[in-house]
Structures are given as structure tokens and as C-alpha cells.
Amino acid sequence: MNKKLLGLAGIGLGAVLLSSCTANFCSDVDRAQMAYPYEQGVTVYCNETEYNSYKAENSEVIAYEESINVAGKAIDGNDNVFKYVPYTINDTGKYVVFGAAKASYLSGTIISGAYSSGYSLPSLKYWAEIDSRVLEASLFLAEKNGEVAYLNSKTSVASDTFKASVTVYGKDKDGEDGYWAVNPFTVADSDGKGEGVEIIDKSVLRRYGHVKFSGIDGALWGNFDSWTADLYKNEGNDADLGMDHVPTAEFASYYKNAVIKTVNNNRSCIATRTANYGHYGTNANWEVAIQQKDWGYAWKMGFLEGLLVYPVSWLVDTFAFGMDPSLSGVGQIWALIFVTLIVRGLLLLITFKSTMDTQKMTALQPEMAKLQAKYPNSNTNQAEKQRLAQEQMALYRRHKIHPFGQILMMIVQFPVFICVWSGLQGSAALSTGEFLGMRLSDNINTILMNFNVRWYANENGWWTALVLFILMAGVQVMAMMLPKIFQKVQEKKLTKLGKNPAATDQQKQMKWMSIGMMVFTIVMGFMLPSAMGIYWLIGGLISMIQTLITQLIMAKAKKRG
Q1: Residue 385: what pLDDT?
Q2: Residue 271 three-state SS
């Protein structure tokens, strides 16, 4: 009964801890920043040459779009920025499929899913009008922040500043040439993949496109809802829309839930300094600005978040930025090593007594075997079972062993493990950079199950993740087996006694528990983020060293005795 109660208590405690210290630290501002790389709209912005080329090949499409003000010049007063919306009609002729590379998530995931669910879909013009407002708001923010003072109509751009296919505008606040691209990449219709495609940091949409998902004071969906309401009322920009074009309440809810579900898969928002972090977007090629989080913010998230989760992330950030400010990957590995040493060192101080008690219990196996032989029927005879338990407790007291120390050790280690996991998973610093091609924020199983990449060439760190998983699983299993190996050695030195059914049952339970823990370790290790896998690998090595040291201490103590 006591074991059952302890088991139920452990499960309850685990549930509380799991729900407590795995809070998502991402703010609404962070979520808006992360949403745009996935859902960038449907409009392609290009220069006049590219526009005329597309128009020549798709004259009917452009003629229709120009008639509804969806294609043509994109910015008043600028003759270099044009827009159009590539689209087709799906096979059944029921809805629009947007063809821009950046629209793959919206068209392939949200719109197709909403149509399959029976929702009415917004019109092409609605999405194009939303894109126009995103660009307008982005330009406004760029000017407000002093990054662009005014727009001009200059159409020629130095080739060494931006590639010819990139649309640009403006002068900087000092009146010097300080051109900014509209597009996030050097190819107009691009999602960042392909040969010759490069990232443009000085891109208005890369820097400010998140305004689509934010609003006043960073409120999520503020601008999107406001713009949709205006278009519903047929207000602004000669929109000529109304209720037949804008989203229904059902579609709007579906759209928002889909975007937030995607965004919430990213938890790396514990940043000790505001900077650009991560690998976001459908092709993981965007870094976004994540807000700084302080300790006060962490305490508001929860008790364990403030006590353990945030300090772990703070240590990772401090070491990573200190050793590699560019966060290229090597600094994060060293940060993980130092954080593991610190955490495991503190755990060792807290659990050293219970660890030594465990080793003492192993050393007392000969005497325990004699007691079990003394009461051979303790498995079925309640009186013998009670007397055996009493003598075992007396033996523990003589050797100053607290048998429930192991339970206490697990109670301490479990929340620490979960909180360290949460801290590493939430660390913004670990979401940036790579180590031998492997992104530290990616789950090991995600990397290994991704056969769309050239895994044989270690693309996306496939071989790195495989080697890490094998080493981590092997070390963890060895760390659990090492104490049992020492116990086997001790048992070989014992005089063979008659079999005790109670002892035999207990050994079977321990054996199956060990097998279960090994399976759990391997499965859990497969699902871990790469950074946590490195932490677990280093922790396993430390556990093995700890076992060897305690065995040496016990051996010396036995000789002195």
C-alpha cells in the first residue's frame, strides 16, 4: 500500500511539475515576429523589368489584377517597386491557389485545410490588400525608426549594393545613399531556397513584416483584425471589398489557430538580451528579434520558471555570448558543457548523502542475503515479512543509511531535469547557429527522420545527430548499468545461499525496472532537442565518474573498517 501511495504521489508530483515548469516564455511580440516568416502573404514585389517580363507571359492574369488594383506600382512615388499575385485555380475549380514561393504555407496548409473543412475562403483581392497594408505599415515603421527618411523614384542601383532583381527604395536619414530592399531575399519570388538566393538583412519586410500579426502595444492580431474590419466596411485604399471578400468568423478563427499552432512549436524565447535569434520559416532561414526577458518576467511565468528555468537559460546565454558573440555554434557547445558541470555539481552536493547510502546498500548485499535466507517464507508469511522488514531497517540504522533517501533523490532530480530541459529548450541563444551542421534547437528525431535532405552528405547535421544519439544512449545505459556491474562483482564474492522467493521477486522487479528505464532513456533521447542530448551525454559521463569515485571511497572505507 505504501509503495502504491508513493507511486501515486510521484505521478501527481510529476504532473504538477511538468505543467508548472514547461511554460512558454514567448510574448505576443515574439509570436508576431515568429509568425511572419511562415505566413508572408501572397504578393510578389519586383522591379519594372521583372514585372513586364511576368506580364508578357501571363497577360490575362496581370490584366485582371491591374483592373482590381492588385498588380502594378506598389508604392506611391516610387517607380522601381511593382507587385503582382501569382495564382491558379485548384483542380476542382473551387478556390484560388496562390503560386508565390513565400505563399506555400498559407496556400498549402491553411487555405487547403480550411476548404477541406468547409469554410468560406477570402478572395484574392483581400489577401493582396492585406499585403499592401503590411508593406505600407512596414515603410512607416522604417521611417519612424529613422532608418529611412523618405522615398524616391530612383530606379538604378549599384550592382555591388544589391542584386538587380531586388527592389529597393529611399535614402537614409543623413541624406546618404542607404538603400533598403523590400524583399527578404535577393530573388523577388523566393522562400530562401535555391542556388544564388541570399538573405537581405536590410529588408523592410524582413525587419517589419511582423506588423501584420501585431498591433498597438504589441497586442497579437491587432492590425490584422483592424485591417480586416476596414476592408469589411469597404474603407481605405479604394479597396472595393465588403463582406463577400473578407474572412468569415469561422475562417478567421481557423487561420489564427493554425498560425499560432505553428508558432507555438517554437519555444526559444528566453533571451537575456534583445537580438535576432533562431531558424524560423518553412525553410528555417529567418532570424527574428526576440525580446529580452528578465528574472521578474520568469517569476511571473511560475515558481519553478523563476527558480530554475530562467537561471539555466541565463547561464547558457552568458557563456555562449561570452565565448562566441556571433553564436555560430561552438560557443553554445562550450556553454552546454559548463552548464552541465554546474547543474550536476550542485545536484551532487544536494544528493551526495543519498548517493553514498545507495552505495552502502549495495555493499550490504551479503548481510541482506543472510537476512532473506533467515526468513525464507517472507513472501507469503506476513509475520516473517514484518520481522524481515524490521531487521532490515535495524541494519540500515546501524550503518546510518536512510533507505528513503533514494526517493528523496528522485524527487529532487526530477524537477531539476524537467526544468533544465525547459531552460535549454527555451534558450534563444541555443536556437541560433549550428554545430557540424546540426541545429541545437532541433529535436534529434526530427533531424534523423528528415529524409528529404541529403542525409548522406550530413545536410542539416544528419550524421552529427545520429552520432550524438548513439553516444548519448550508450552513455546513459552504461551510467545506469555501472552500479549493477559493481553489485554483480560483490555478489560473486558471497557464499551461495538458498533461494528466497521474496528476494527473487524483488530482483525480478528491479530487473524489469532497469529494462524499463533503459527503454525510456533511449526513447526519450530520440525525442530530445539536440542541445538537451548534449546535456544528457555529458551528464551520463559525469554519473559514471561519480559512480567510480563513490566505489573507490567505499573500498577505502571497507579497508579501514
Answers
A1: 75
A2: strand
Considering only CA atoms, which of 78, 46, 207 is closest in space to residue 142?
A: 207
Q: What pTM was estimated for this model as a whole?
A: 0.79
E-state strands within 412-457: 434-435, 438-439
Q: Total domain count for the chain?
A: 2
Please give the C-alpha separations between residue 116 and each of 87, 139, 239, in angstroms, as whole numbers: 19, 36, 28
Q: Domain span at residue 351?
A: 345-560
- Dig out the grid coordinates for 194 from the structure: 535555391
Q: Give me the helix-helix angle, 330-363 and 310-323, nearest 10°.
A: 130
Residues with Cβ within 8 Å of 142's Cβ and at least 6 positions away in sequence, in order, are: 148, 180, 204, 207, 208
Residue 460, classified by CB atoms within 10 Å of its CB into exposed (0-12), middle (13-18) or buried (19+), is buried
Residue 168 domain-assigned?
Answer: yes
CA-CA distances (angstroms) from residue 78 to 25, 155, 438? 41, 8, 43
Residues 359, 254 within the same domain:
no
The string over 516-544, giving b where at least 16 C-beta atoms fall within 10 Å of a residue's C-beta and e elsewhere, is: eeeeebeeebbebbbbbbbbbbbbbbbbb
End residue of a domain, out of 246, 264, 282: 264
**Residue listed under C-alpha cell 506580364:** 55
**Main-chain phi, psi angles of 171, to 5 degrees:** -130, 155
Cell numbers for 273: 538580451
Share of the chain above pLDDT 70, in %: 77
Angle at 288 between CA 283 and CA 291, to 5 degrees: 150
Return the minimum-mean-pLDDT range out of 1-5, 202-206, 244-248.
1-5
Of 226, 241, 264, which one is at a domain's C-terminal end?
A: 264
User: What are the pLDDT digits (tens) for 403-448?
Assistant: 666 666 666 777 888 888 889 889 999 988 888 888 888 888 888 8
User: Within a domain: residue 286?
Assistant: no
SS3 83: strand
Tell me the C-alpha distance between 409 and 279, whole Å.
37
Secondary structure, 3-state, 279-310:
EECCCCCEEEEECECCHHHHHHHCHHHHHHHH
Q: CA–CA separation, 172 vs 162, rounded Å?
A: 16
In whole angstroms, what is the distance from residue 66 CA to residue 368 CA?
89
Enter the C-alpha cell of residue 292: 529580452
Other C-beta atoms within 10 Å of 456: how many? 8
Residue 376 lies in a domain: yes
